[in-house]
Amino acid sequence: MELELQQAIEILERTPATLNSMLRDVPEVWLAQNEGPETWSPYDIVGHLIHGEETDWIPRARIILEHGEARAFEPFDRVAMFEKSTGKSIAELLDTFAALRKESLHELNEMHLTPALLEKRGRHPELGVVTMKQLLAAWVVHDLGHVRQVVRVMAKQYRDAVGPWRAFLPILEE
Amino acid sequence: MELELQQAIEILERTPATLNSMLRDVPEVWLAQNEGPETWSPYDIVGHLIHGEETDWIPRARIILEHGEARAFEPFDRVAMFEKSTGKSIAELLDTFAALRKESLHELNEMHLTPALLEKRGRHPELGVVTMKQLLAAWVVHDLGHVRQVVRVMAKQYRDAVGPWRAFLPILEE
Fold it and tell me: How far is CA A74 from CA A58, A101, B47, in A?
């Protein structure tokens, strides 16, 4: 399917509420567990999404608009949240993410991206030439990928608790 | 992690709102696409969850309480929704699921499951002996697995649209 700007925005604007439904006021045990060493908890994932709003998606769209391929994006620090989230409650993180996403979408709207601008090229520090449209599609898929990661991490806490049902629950093997 | 009844309920009661955030009023294109032949769309998945409320989880808990291992559960029709959802809007399906889940959790509460009852055994038609506790853990993981399926199906619609970013988005390969 081709990216259509409004269809992409419809997904991007839903992610804060989706995470809120899943995580706000949930018992701590569901928030803090991960999938083992070097993996992320639901709490970590929300922090990572916040850092993406601050340094990744809209800042990169801005670079494409202003510099095209002439200037590569800043590399994105995927694990910045381990330091940045310290001491914050999940409620604070969810509120911060919702506010930042709202700002991001406001700024996206202000960019008035025409079909020509959606095809405009930029340069990713590792992937090379990419377009504005691909950046926006990647933003949507990145959101969905992290929602899927949150539920997978939570599901795995019951890997043993489900007993013989494990054979019917493929999420436990991912 | 061991199943604790209240912790499991905290997840089960959130699923309708999570699906609602993701799917209500979303453009049709996100609801109707699947992952290819014999796979399910987000619309299909909500119908499947409805059928689970009607015929699977609480009915099976009732059978365990009333008959223990003496009577096997009814087999669950995983694809009943292809017929049952016909003609219904996603809004209707989401409302139906939310109402049924509320009833299910009310009935679960009325069962006053003690630690002894949580260990009570029943018989699954394929998996053999299972406990009440395992049934409830499987219910939670089944919910989470289908939320993950919804986002995976949606993400895959942008598999080509993300261009080179595909290399960084593992959800597209699942």
Answer: 12, 20, 44
